[in-house]
Amino acid sequence: MSNEPNYQELAQKAISQPLVTHIYTADPSAHVFDGKLYIYPSHDIDAGIPFNDNGDHFGMEDYHVLSVNDQLEATDHGVALHVKDVPWASRQMWAPDAAEKSGKYYFYFPARDHEQMFRIGVAVGDSPVGPFIAQPDYIKGSYSIDPAVFKDEDGSYYMYVGGIWGGQLQQYRDHEWNAKHELPAKEEPALRPYVAKLSDDMLEFAEPPRYVDILDENGDLLLEGDNDRRFFEASWVHKYNDKYYFSYSTGDTHYICYAIGDSPYGPFTYAGRILEPVIGWTSHHSIAEWKGKWWLFYHDSVLSEGVTHLRSVKMAEIRYDAAGRIETLKPYS
Ligand code: FUB
Questions:
Q1: Alpha-carbon span 191 to 21, nearest angstrom
Q2: Which amino acid residue places its CA nearest to atom 9 of ligand 1?
Q3: Known active-site residue 97
C-alpha cells in the first residue's frame, strides 16, 4: 500500500480551489485597492535546483499580480517585475507585498543580493497590477525575507519582515549579521520578526527596525522550543475591532497562528491557530476584508500533487467569534 496521499480526494475535500491553474502561485498578499481585490503572490517555478533546508529549490524569477472578481474568478495580469530588471538582486524572488499611497503603487519583495544575502527591495508603478520599476538599491538596513506592509488608520505604513532557515533570520542578533549565529537553544526566547515604519516616500525605513514580541499567556516571550506557537516566517498584520492582529507561520510545524495587540509595534499575545497544516511544507497567508467578509488567502501543493515548491493560491472566508477570536480552518475538512 502506498503512503502517498490521494490528491484527487484531497482536492475534492478542500475548502477552496486554486485561484489560477495555468501557473503556480504562492505566498498570497491580498489588498483591496479602490474597492477591487488584488493578490500579490510569489510565482513558483521548477528551477531544477535540488531540495535543501535553505530552500534553494524555491528558485523564483518574477512576479505576476492577480485580481479577483465577485465570482472569485482570478485574472493574471502578467509579469509585473522580473529579477533581471532589479539591479541589486541575483535570485530567489520570494514572498512579496504591495501598498498604495497617493495613487502610486509600491511593490515590496525579498531577493538575494549579489553577496547572496536576502534583502528587501521596492519597485514603484502607476497601476496596482504593475509593471513596477525597481529602485536601484535595496531598502537600507533591510535583511531576511517576507515583507508585509500594514497601513494604519492614521495613514502610517509599517513593514514587518523575517524568516528562519533559508530566510537567514537566525544569523542576526540586534539586527547585525554574523555567520556564526545559529538558532537559540530551546529554552531561550524564539527569534522574532522585525518592524519598521516606512518613510513618507515609501522607499526606506523611517526608523531603526525593532523586534516584534509575541508573548504567551503569562506575558513571557514565546520560547524557541515552542515550535507549535513560535514565529518562523510569513508575517501579516490586520486590524479588527481596533485591535492589531499579527499572524504568521510556525514553519516546521506548519500552522498559521495569530497574536493580538494594542499597537502596530506589539507586543502581541498568542491567541490561537487560523489554519491547520496544508499539503506542502510551507504555509503562508494574508488576511483582508472584502465585500463585507473577512478572507484568508493561503496556498497549498495539492495541484502539483505535493511538490512543495509548486504551490497554488486559494482563498477562504474566516469568521470571528464575539470575543474577536478567529475560528480555525481545516483545509481539507
Ligand atoms: O516562497 C518562498 C518562501 O516559502 C517564502 O518566502 C516563505 O514564506 C515560504 O512560503
A1: 35
A2: 282
A3: no
What is the grid cell recorded at 296? 484568508
Ligand 1 mutation pick, 61, 146, 231, max ligand atoms within 8 A of CB: 146
**ipTM for the complex?**
0.98
Q: Would you say residue 1 lies in a domain?
A: no
DSSP 242-265: TEEEEEEE-GGG--EEEEEESSTT
Residues facing 108 on adjacent strands:
97, 122
pLDDT band of residue 4 (cuts 50, 70, 90) is confident
Position 333 in a domain = no
Taking CA atoms only, the protein residue closest to ligand 1 atom 2 is: 94
Summary count for the chain: helices (H), strands (E)? 1, 23
Could you tell me the CATH number of the domain that includes residue 45? 2.115.10.20
Let me know if residue 177 belongs to a domain. Answer: yes
Give tens-digit pLDDT for 88-111: 999 999 999 999 999 999 999 999
Question: Following DSSP, what letter does each residue of 80-147 receive, concatenated?
Answer: EEEGGG-TTEEE-----EEEEETTEEEEEEEEEETTS-EEEEEEEESSTT---EEPSSPPTT--SS--
| Domain with 64 in it | 7-327
Give the span between the Cα atoms of 212 and 191, in whole angstroms.
10
Active site residue 27: yes
Do the domain assignments include residue 289?
yes
Alpha-carbon gap, residue 253 to 241, rounded angstroms: 29
Asked whether 193 and 160 are in contact (CB, 8 A), the reply is yes
Count structural domains, the chain: 1
